[in-house]
Amino acid sequence: MMRTRKRPAVRPLDIAVILALAGLAAYMGWRVEIRLDYDWRWELIGQYLLRRDASGALVPGVLTQGLLTTVRLSVWTMLAATLIGTVMGLARTSTSLFRRLAGQCYVGLVRNTPPLVLMFIFYFFLADQLLNALNVDAAVRAAPLWAQHALALTMAPVNELPGFLSGLMTLAVYEGAYITEHVRAGVQSVERGQFEAAYALGLSPWQRMRHVVMPQALPRIVPPLAGQFISTIKDSAIVSVISIQELTFQGMELMAATYMTFEIWITVALLYLALTVACSLAARRVELRFRRGLS
After folding, report:
1. Is the model's pTM score more than 0.85?
2. Which of 3, 199, 216, 220 could disulfide-link to 186, CB 3.0 to 4.6 Å?
């Protein structure tokens, strides 16, 4: 028997909220139009999203290039942060006192420091120094041409790669602290009897974690990880302070050059909104799938 899905009812409070938002938008429009005497130039925004090059082909404009950099940075950050968070999350649930203290110190230090301060500390004192010590810039410039093209496609152009890697490392350390807590909570949510049964079977710690604990913890960890990816997209705007050419940085540069303050920032906000809403819908599907797997 097929279930009929009930249509959500529109309540008076919903109508009141919609009217309030519409009134706020109208008031802001009136303030900008009348009080600020602002000269809107929406017709120029299109060239910053898509433009034609010398051959007449459509290529990404400045804002679209920034959006693509934001997507690349967020994906790589999430991969690195998941690795860091998994290692530190397992350390937080370890029987070793040293590992638990190391994980606890990492989470406490990162989560209780303002992200902007953390960004400057990691960029100037750790990531930048580490990349210079490893001579990453020279190694990338000496790489074959196909490798440089691959790096430009998946990360950033060669001349921007050191800054991109610095921002990536900093964001990965920051987001990794939150993923650490997701992993810890997922592992600790597995019933104690499962640990005892695995121990009674004579499994090694690695086998207990691989065959018993993680298969049960993973469905509980993945949904919050999907939400963390959305947070990573929004948090990536902070790397604009170290001149990584992501969406916010491109918006600031464009605004300074054109003085199209409202058009630029409204477009930037809509691009972020489209990206995060798409990720939210995907995360919702992942969550529903794992929820069905648990039931």
Report:
1. no
2. 220
